[in-house]
Amino acid sequence: MTAGIARFVADNARLVVVVMLVASAVVGAGVPMVERSTSLDQFQTDAAAADAADYVDANFSADGAETTTAQVVIQDENVLDRETLVAVLEYERALRDDETVDETLVETRSVASLVATAAIREDRERANATQNGTTPSDANETRDGTAPSDGSATPADGERAPNIDAQIDALRSRSDDEVERFVGDVLAGDGNRSSQALTLLPDYYEPGSTETNATLLVVTQESPGASFAPGDAPDEIEASQTAMQDLAPDDGSMSVLVYGDGIVSTEITDSMVDSVTLVGPLAIAFVLVVLVVVYRDLLDILLGLAGVALVLVWTFGAMGWAGIPFSQPFVVVLVLLIGLSIDYGLHVVMRYREARAADESAPSRAMAVALGSVGVALVYVTITTVIGFLSNLTSPLGIFRDLGLVSAIGIVATLAVFGLLVPALKVELDAFLEARGVDRAHPAVGTGRGPINRLLGVGATLAAWAPAAVIVVALVVSGVGAYGATTVDASFEQSDFLAEDPDDWLKDLPEPVAPGTYTAERAIDTLEADFVRRDTTASILLRGDVTDPATLDRLDAARATAGDASATETYADGEPAVTDPITVMDRVAAENPSFAATLSAADTDGDGVPDRNVTGVYDELFRVAPDDASNVVHREDGSYEALRMVVTVDGSVDDAVVHEELDAVAAEAAHDGSATDPDGVGADSDGSDAAGDGAAADHAGVTAIATGDVVVNRITADQLAETAITSLLVALAAVMIVLAVAYRLTEGSASLGVVTILPVAATLTWVLGTMALLDIPFNIVTGMITGLTIGLGVDYSLHVSERFVQELAEADTTAAALRETVTGTGGALLSSAATTASGFAVLLVAILPFLQSFGLITALTIVYAVLASVFVLPSLLVVWARVGGRYVP
């Protein structure tokens, strides 16, 4: 900001206020247009695996119906005893009787239902035997060997189960010993009914045992409309799964945890609202405390808070006009702008106070001096910080581009509000009050004698006596940090967006600040530890000539590879959790003699895989079991287009390992297995993938690609790391060029721009090293830390460099110029750092883990940036002055 603009603002304060308020009203009109978004689809990458996932969602389903599954974890001392089995069935009945749940309910599956059905089945066998004079073992088959269609078969046999009341009565009428016998029979570990039951028990369960402490109730629901992305479940699914949790028994008979897409969507939305209502007031409260301590003036405090509010209005108004929705990561932007707004305000106000104390000039004159002095630094800071955030536009992830753009808009709004409106308001109000005898002159922080002054003077003293030693120490620490930076991992998981259940003291806060109760994260932990999670599945998608018998042979071999992979879950009976057209054919053939005959005729070598008339086998499969068929085979207008293998993934296995193993399975499904994927990110036509985005393998007209959330999430995580590194390099290079050019034009020294950016580079290594030390990965918000560090670091460094150049022109010695710099500007730096750091530190009480880690690392970033600016940069400036011939002893 030139001296002419500064004088214009100070001399035409009323005009500036009017123009800025009108502009605020126009931009602020966009605030009501901001929509909320909870869909994790906004974080999806553009990789080939993501396109394949969309294809799977669109073309594989049960008979064209869109369904979703809720997994209900039921825990008790023994969930297989008669009392708990009855309680489970009563809970199922409550679900069916509830209007909200019943609106979407398709079916429920539980061990309790299988055991009850077995009891009813035995009763009917005995009744039929008595009536027909046959033995009970003969009574369950008709003449053609098929199960009867009167509903007497178990749900696992594909027939309709007896009604829930009959099941409850069957178990209530039996003794504990009789129920225990049925449990043992159902879970003996042989037959289709047993294998189905074992999928509902924890992985540590021993087949045939009649005791265990946990089981699953699987609830299948019809999803209204098309398929949806995680976190974006339809309202009906959200309401019904919330109702499932509310319907859980509260008499202590058993523990119930509901997990599903509806619960996830609800908790993502609630956590976003709770985070804003909890973090926002606390951040403002912390900032207010710091402002009271620093300003010690009610008017300046109120102006600061009003400016912060207006910056947020401008930012969210721009989001509304641009159609950018508000999602969880934007909570970070809110806190960032609160901190930086106070930062800008502090520099203007403290420089204004210094100007008034120097010559007791009128408010307008003092403000012209203040803006003419600190305004240049603020403009540089804004330009470089905007560059730092706009470096995210290089990210392949759309959400990062939006975050970078919105943050940049917010920084520009901060300059406009605190560089124009707040100074103009302060001039008018101070002049108005002083005309009525109110003294508006206040000292600037750090300019008087005291502990702050002495602390700030350490950097200047060290720079004067041993600048080389300071630089060497900084280089050593930076080297250690740079080494640690190479070990920082990247993470993108659905669980990253789920809140941990808050501590009781947070829940005891007054409404509406107090957060709610969150259970999804606990449910995920339980499912991953003890069960085969039904929502952690990956798909191997095959497209092309899928009616070629060789395609099924390769698929059969690939399934064996998938079953041996460490990433593949296994059921309690040891069977791998893998489903594909061949396993479906086997299961249907075991239950349907008509299809068994078709499959046998097509399988000439007896290996269970059709080697002729594959189209006819698919046709018959769709005729007798359309739901099962459409889940693994896609046909369009009578033509068979694609197959898929579904692999349930062990959530405890590292994503990179999962990705690598699944890509090997995909390569084998479309190839003879001689080539594998060297980088774990897919294979091309010769079994390797140079693109690194999960590209498909190709053989004999058939492509195969590993896809699904777990694969796409790994690719997204890799792109998060790529974003962090790319934005770091782009921002550092761009900021260095801008500063070098600016200082070449204004001070005749491009090297001053390079010196100013060096402490920022050091801060980056310290921050990344700390992330490695604390095991904090790059995620959807910490991936912004490199751009944020550059923005904040340049902010502090620029103020010191700019003030040093001004003081050097007037001071008798370089040491005196340094002391004036760090005690004058340093006081404002410490004050602004305290407000910004406290604002981010508030995120430590956030209910979202990624916000907590971001709050911690950003608060440390600010501390590091101040240390580098006050203690390292002065030594660099001394060396710069000596080399450039500007040093004055």
Automatic annotation (TrEMBL):
<feature type="transmembrane region" description="Helical">
    <location>
        <begin position="462"/>
        <end position="485"/>
    </location>
</feature>
<feature type="transmembrane region" description="Helical">
    <location>
        <begin position="857"/>
        <end position="881"/>
    </location>
</feature>
<feature type="transmembrane region" description="Helical">
    <location>
        <begin position="752"/>
        <end position="774"/>
    </location>
</feature>
<dbReference type="InterPro" id="IPR004869">
    <property type="entry name" value="MMPL_dom"/>
</dbReference>
<feature type="compositionally biased region" description="Polar residues">
    <location>
        <begin position="128"/>
        <end position="139"/>
    </location>
</feature>
<feature type="transmembrane region" description="Helical">
    <location>
        <begin position="276"/>
        <end position="295"/>
    </location>
</feature>
<keyword id="KW-0472">Membrane</keyword>
<keyword id="KW-1133">Transmembrane helix</keyword>
<feature type="transmembrane region" description="Helical">
    <location>
        <begin position="369"/>
        <end position="391"/>
    </location>
</feature>
<feature type="transmembrane region" description="Helical">
    <location>
        <begin position="302"/>
        <end position="324"/>
    </location>
</feature>
<feature type="region of interest" description="Disordered">
    <location>
        <begin position="122"/>
        <end position="163"/>
    </location>
</feature>
<feature type="transmembrane region" description="Helical">
    <location>
        <begin position="724"/>
        <end position="745"/>
    </location>
</feature>
<feature type="transmembrane region" description="Helical">
    <location>
        <begin position="828"/>
        <end position="851"/>
    </location>
</feature>
<feature type="compositionally biased region" description="Low complexity">
    <location>
        <begin position="679"/>
        <end position="695"/>
    </location>
</feature>
<feature type="domain" description="SSD">
    <location>
        <begin position="752"/>
        <end position="879"/>
    </location>
</feature>
<feature type="transmembrane region" description="Helical">
    <location>
        <begin position="780"/>
        <end position="798"/>
    </location>
</feature>
<feature type="region of interest" description="Disordered">
    <location>
        <begin position="669"/>
        <end position="695"/>
    </location>
</feature>
<feature type="domain" description="SSD">
    <location>
        <begin position="302"/>
        <end position="428"/>
    </location>
</feature>
<feature type="transmembrane region" description="Helical">
    <location>
        <begin position="330"/>
        <end position="349"/>
    </location>
</feature>
<dbReference type="InterPro" id="IPR000731">
    <property type="entry name" value="SSD"/>
</dbReference>
<comment type="similarity">
    <text>Belongs to the resistance-nodulation-cell division (RND) (TC 2.A.6) family. MmpL subfamily.</text>
</comment>
<feature type="transmembrane region" description="Helical">
    <location>
        <begin position="403"/>
        <end position="425"/>
    </location>
</feature>
<feature type="transmembrane region" description="Helical">
    <location>
        <begin position="12"/>
        <end position="34"/>
    </location>
</feature>
<protein>
    <submittedName>
        <fullName>RND family transporter</fullName>
    </submittedName>
</protein>
<keyword id="KW-0812">Transmembrane</keyword>
<dbReference type="InterPro" id="IPR050545">
    <property type="entry name" value="Mycobact_MmpL"/>
</dbReference>
<keyword id="KW-1003">Cell membrane</keyword>
<dbReference type="GO" id="GO:0005886">
    <property type="term" value="C:plasma membrane"/>
</dbReference>
<dbReference type="Pfam" id="PF03176">
    <property type="entry name" value="MMPL"/>
</dbReference>
